[in-house]
Amino acid sequence: MSEPTTPAALEPIPEQLERVLVVVAHPDDIEYGTAAAVDVWTSAGVTVTYLLATRGEAGIDGIPPEQAAPLRAQEEVTGALRVGVEVVEFLDHQDGVVEYGLALRKGIAREIRRRRPDIVIGMSYETVFAGGMTNQADHRAVGLAAVDAVRDAANRWIFRDLAEQEGLEPWSGVAAVYLAVAEPPTHYVDVTGHLEPAVASLEAHAEYNRHLPDAFPKPRELVTGILTRGAAAVARPGVEHAVLFRRYPM
User: Fold this and answer.
1) If you average pLDDT over every residue of the chain, what do you get?
2) For the chain, which domains are there?
């Protein structure tokens, strides 16, 4: 009978960072834990920018999409500022029915060439999140497109008009894509001391949070739980809170 395998120890993200691009589907996706890592980076002088595929207009049952879109976009901008992010861009794909494909890949590749990040942060494209919850379709489409767009951004002969018409030269400087809530995690960011900005960033989504079911955890409880479970997985002295990622080297 074979012995059970021991999971590999998680390691801190190894890259020396100057610029980070975070790519997700909706307003509030970043705020479920990842914002704590963002606050670590911006506090250290790293330039972090956000790119969202949608404005989250289908996310509030009681508010029509045409009203929800500007509201949720503004909540994202406000939440981003609370962790030191000043640039939030939107691709304006339709919330809830984002399609993986060339248009999505091109939009992300354009932003990679524009921002020239050292790493790209996203969310899992697997059917099931870490922890067992079924992943939503937009998350899956955007997560996979983010990985593929890194290669697209580096190749002059894919989306040629980005260079020839828009002046955006290829960028091959992305060392890796790191996806949150992806199994199994391989790396982490120690976010000890950054709980409060992370909670504040999720609290900025006030109207969205107000429409969630009463049983849904409040921002402080939710973020604290995510970061505490991350630290338990890291299991290193002094790490009280952590954000976990799976690394996809480029």
Assistant:
1) 95
2) 15-249 (3.40.50.10320)
